[in-house]
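Ticket closed. Logging final result for Capsular polysaccharide synthesis protein.
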Amino acid sequence: MSTLLPLKKVYRKFLRKVKKFRSRNVETNLDRLRTRPDIEPVYVLQMGKVASLSVSSSLREQYEGTVLHGHSFSADDSRGDVKTLFRHFNNGENRMKVISLVREPIGRNISAFFQNFSKYVGKDFSASSYTASELRDIFVEKYDHREPLDWFDKWILSNFDIDVFNYEFPKEGYLTLNNEKISLLVMKYDLSDAIKQRVIGDFVGLRDFELINNNISSKKDYSEMYVQVKKMGMPPSYVEKMLQDRYTRHFYLEELDHLKKIWTEKEVVNAKEEK
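Final structure:
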């Protein structure tokens, strides 16, 4: 019996390598829409900077059906694989599983700002000499801060006729919704990997699903400046606006006071504490 367990682990590892090789080929991934019609495709459709790439890449290695990862879903999408999935979904009675992760909007937006640094700053991070304070001001002024706040209406409600704000979001940090076309899993970005593995595994029918992390900001060249900007905090008016939005109150209602404390610029917090 003891020798069987290592053999099973080796075999599982071999199967994952085979699946990983296959998943790198977009055509092979999409072919499963035709060759495996019995398995619903999974689309990790999300707003970005919610650790979703780890979810989709892990699923591609372990799920037998089509797995795609993206930020949009339309007939004229810039990506051919997404357009193919869109046509498949809107043709007849084809069902789909959708996974969307949520993150408190301030931290999410700061992360997205640094990920797309040159778009907002006008130069690559390596060529920038801005201070943390200057970058904080550029972020507040130029970034589209409503992006996460409006995301569910723009992509989930419009495509699948599911309004997530009509359903109470559980304290456990995840929710599954179903209609005649899709099964939707909404879950918090900041859940532990152990919980994510269990919830996603149950959702897609993978008993031994394992989550493999990647694309972590601490590995990026901007990681130190990113941490500095986060530690500085944000203007009180900005923090208040973001935290009082429907999105934040729906998904992070019990954490509002904590989020306000950690994100309000530190000199303002310190001044209040001294009074």
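The CA atoms of residues 148 and 158 lie 15 Å apart. No further action required.
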